[in-house]
Sequence to fold (135 residues):
Amino acid sequence: MAESTTLHASPSPPRFESASPIGDTDISALPVKEIGPAVVYYTQVLGFALVARQDETATLRRDRATIGLAQNGADPEQASVYFAVNDVAALRDELAAKGIEPSPLRMDEYDGKRYQVFFAKEPFGVCFCFGQPAD
Fold:
C-alpha cells in the first residue's frame, strides 16, 4: 500500500494584527514611485485589499492592518514598517511561495519582550519586518 503525504496547512491564512512605523516612516503615506504598480503588488502579492484610491494615493488593508501608499517624491528606500501577525512562520511560507525572498526567521528583543521576526523588502524599496511575540 502506498503512503500518502499531506501538508498540514494552517486552517486560515496568517492574520495581520497591526501596522506600525519603524523610525519616522509615515505608514499612512508609504512612498512609491508609481501608485498603479504598487497597488497591484500590495494586493496581488502581499494580500492587501484596496480600500480607497485617488490619483497619487491609496489606502490598503489586510485584516487589522491599514497602510497608505503615496506617490509623494519621498525615497521608498528610507521607509520601514513593522507588521504584527498571528503566525509569522506561516506568513513567511506564504510570501516565499509568491516569489518574495524573506530573511530567515530569527528572535529579536524589543522593549523587554522577545519576538520571532523576519524581514522582506518590496520591489519598490520599502522594508518590512513581520513578527509575533515569542512568549
